C-alpha cells in the first residue's frame, strides 16, 4: 500500500478538525473533511463534503476506502446526552464496515476532581460531573469495541485548547483579542494555580500519530502538553509576545460570569459542574506519549507567540 496516498476522513471542521487536516496534508495524506453544510474554509489540498454523521448510512458511505477515521465532532453541552452516543455508535460502525482505524479526540472530564494530582494514563475515571460520567461511558465503549475485536481505536485527551483557529476556550476569544487592544483579559478561577493548556498544533500532531502507529491502538493517551504553569504566568508570556503589559480581570465563579453576561444562562448552567478545573491545580502529565512516540510539546512561549501572531492576522484580514 502507498501510505502517502491513504485516505484520512475527519468528521468535524472546528479547530481540531482543521488543524488535524493541515497536519495530515503535511504528512502526504489525502484528507476528506466532513461537516453538515459542506461549507467552510479548509486547508488547501483537502476535500470538504457535506454529511450528517448522526445518520449511519451517510457516515459509512463517506468513510468508504478510508485508512483512518477521526471523530473530531462537537455538540453544545446541553445536547451531549442525545448526540454523543449516536455519533459514537456511527463512528464505531463505520470503522467496523471499512476496516479503518478510528481516532477520537476526548476530554479530561472523565477524571473528575484530582485535587492537584497530575493526570496520567493511569489516573482512574472518577468523574464528578454528569458530562464527565457520560464521556467516561463513551470512552469505555470505544475501548470495549477494540477489546472485542470489532474495531481498532485510540483516544487522545487534551487540556484547554489554545492556538491558531481556537476561539471558544478559556485561553481564546476572551484573552487574545482584548490583549491586542490593550484591554483587560478575562481569566477564570484561581489564576495562581498551575493549569495545563494544550496547543492546537500539538493536538493535531498527537492525533495524527495515534492514527499512524499500531501500538497506539486500544489505549487512551494524554496528548503532548507543555509543563503546567499558572495562568498568571501564561499572561506574562503573552505580554512578552506583545511587547506591552496586560491587565487581568478574573472571574472567580460561574455566577459572576453569568451576572456579567460573559456566559449565557444555558452555558452557565451546563458549565457549573466543570468549573472545578479552575479552582484546583489542573495538571496533565503527557510523558507516556513522549516516551512512546518521541513526540514533544511546543515550548509554551513559542506557542503563545504564534497564537498572538495568528490573532493579529485575523484583525487585519
TrEMBL record:
InterPro entries: Epimerase_deHydtase (IPR001509), NAD(P)-bd_dom_sf (IPR036291). Residues 12-213 form the NAD-dependent epimerase/dehydratase domain. Pfam families: Epimerase. It comes from the Bacteria. SUPFAM superfamilies: NAD(P)-binding Rossmann-fold domains. This is Epimerase.
Amino acid at each position: 500500500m502507498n501510505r502517502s496516498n491513504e485516505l484520512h476522513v475527519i468528521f468535524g471542521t472546528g479547530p481540531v478538525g482543521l488543524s488535524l487536516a493541515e497536519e495530515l496534508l503535511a504528512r502526504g495524506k489525502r484528507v476528506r473533511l466532513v461537516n453538515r453544510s459542506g461549507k467552510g474554509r479548509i486547508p488547501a489540498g483537502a476535500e470538504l463534503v457535506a454529511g450528517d454523521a448522526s445518520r449511519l448510512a451517510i457516515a459509512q458511505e463517506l468513510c468508504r476506502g478510508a485508512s483512518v477515521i477521526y471523530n473530531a465532532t462537537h455538540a453544545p453541552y446541553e445536547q451531549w446526552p442525545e448526540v454523543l452516543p449516536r455519533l459514537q455508535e456511527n463512528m464505531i460502525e463505520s470503522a467496523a464496515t471499512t476496516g479503518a482505524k478510528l481516532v477520537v479526540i476526548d476530554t479530561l472530564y472523565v477524571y473528575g476532581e484530582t485535587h492537584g494530582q497530575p493526570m496520567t494514563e493511569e489516573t482512574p475515571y472518577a468523574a464528578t460531573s454528569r458530562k464527565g460520567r457520560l464521556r467516561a461511558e463513551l470512552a469505555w465503549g470505544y475501548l470495549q469495541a477494540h477489546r472485542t475485536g470489532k474495531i481498532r481505536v485510540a483516544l487522545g485527551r487534551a487540556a484547554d485548547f489554545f492556538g491558531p483557529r481556537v476561539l471558544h476556550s478559556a485561553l481564546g476569544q476572551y484573552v487574545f483579542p482584548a490583549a491586542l487592544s490593550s484591554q483587560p483579559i478575562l481569566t477564570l478561577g484561581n489564576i495562581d494555580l498551575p493549569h495545563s493548556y494544550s496547543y492546537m498544533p500539538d493536538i493535531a500532531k498527537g492525533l495524527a500519530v495515534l492514527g499512524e502507529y499500531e501500538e497506539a491502538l486500544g489505549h487512551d493517551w494524554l496528548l503532548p502538553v507543555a509543563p503546567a504553569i499558572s495562568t498568571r504566568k501564561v499572561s506574562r508570556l503573552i505580554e512578552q509576545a506583545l511587547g506591552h503589559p496586560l491587565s487581568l480581570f478574573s472571574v472567580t465563579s460561574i455566577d459572576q460570569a453569568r451576572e456579567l453576561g460573559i456566559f449565557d444562562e444555558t452555558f452557565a448552567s451546563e458549565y457549573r459542574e466543570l468549573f472545578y478545573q479552575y479552582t484546583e491545580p489542573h495538571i496533565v502529565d503527557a510523558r507516556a506519549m513522549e516516551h512512546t512516540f518521541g513526540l514533544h510539546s511546543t515550548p509554551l512561549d513559542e506557542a503563545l507567540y504564534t497564537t498572538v501572531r495568528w490573532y493579529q492576522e485575523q484583525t487585519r484580514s
